[in-house]
Fold these 2 entries.
Entry 1:
Amino acid sequence: AQTVTQSQPEMSVQEAETVTLSCTYDTSESNYYLFWYKQPPSRQMILVIRQEAYKQQNATENRFSVNFQKAAKSFSLKISDSQLGDTAMYFCAFMSGSARQLTFGSGTQLTVLP
Amino acid sequence: DAGVTQSPTHLIKTRGQQVTLRCSPKSGHDTVSWYQQALGQGPQFIFQYYEEEERQRGNFPDRFSGHQFPNYSSELNVNALLLGDSALYLCASSLRRATNEKLFFGSGTQLSVL
């Protein structure tokens, strides 16, 4: 079974600054995908960024980028130029290549301060 | 293009009752997954439906059942409700043949069991 661990329950950052959210996972599979989802107060889970395990290049989506360390099973999210609208709960998630179901971490509540 | 829609938004039931939650997938999607998100936790996978059959199931008792209709919409049924079933229930849709493994989530149904 796969596990996803987010060790930072809460974090805060000043507007326009950079923040990094940590995530580690455990799996014996070689084909898998990793995701960061954002859940604002509206409760809808919104995909922020996605990484295929077979790709060495770190994924980037505008102000969001990841640091994927496959050997260390680490998958951190960096948010640059933080904005007030980034305030939300952030979940790291794992999906194996064979089973299309997500395993989520416990989340990190990010607050962007004005 | 409508995204994933869920109904109702909120629901209050008493212990022992039965409840049905509904989900309409994003246009063009054929696969529906259900997740349970307890307060302060990450979502947990309940089951997934494709071609009107349950394809994968998480670690949930038989009290949790589902259905998928020919138009790809889905229902989640929970029998003999327990206080511990109080949670946000999220529906996610995807396209089976897609290779990008992206799931789109609805805003959820908040179930309170008294």
Entry 2:
Amino acid sequence: GIQVEQSPPDLILQEGANSTLRCNFSDSVNNLQWFHQNPWGQLINLFYIPSGTKQNGRLSATTVATERYSLLYISSSQTTDSGVYFCAVADNQAGTALIFGKGTTLSVSS
Amino acid sequence: GAVVSQHPSRVICKSGTSVKIECRSLDFQATTMFWYRQFPKKSLMLMATSNEGSKATYEQGVEKDKFLINHASLTLSTLTVTSAHPEDSSFYICSAFGSAEQFFGPGTRLTVL
């Protein structure tokens, strides 16, 4: 099955700093999503981005499908950005489940 | 985005009892739902794919007689942990496709004493 690797595993930032999280995957995908898991465990959808670039406020994401990686950018980080960020992919069969990376734990201090 | 709910959010039970967790798609129909399990400080692991009107498909290593899945309607899937033991304690999360992307329920934290 598809392998998903996220880096770095842990990231500590001061409020206001920018950061880049990376997701590498081992095969072609038809679905790639980024999530933020809040302290209560809820997975918040950030981006659905099997290819291309999207932006939503201080967050943006880019997926280069041909090179099998995706990047999540967080600008001007805030303490509320703290938590675990997951990248998840599904292979080229429609309707298949997402396979998750191990996540990046982000801690933003004031 | 699409909304997926789960009930209960938290359950504590005694060893040997069975626990049922409900997953509902509130504003869309879902022919397929997924069940995941997450251990503390770990990633989500797919347990099974729940198909409306047919048997669930379980991932390797997941006991289908321990984790019973029923998907009786287009908006409801249930996971029953039978004869629960302390090692079944975990965070269980369901998901469903809302158009192209998947949306996740808030999760159920199961503690077996």
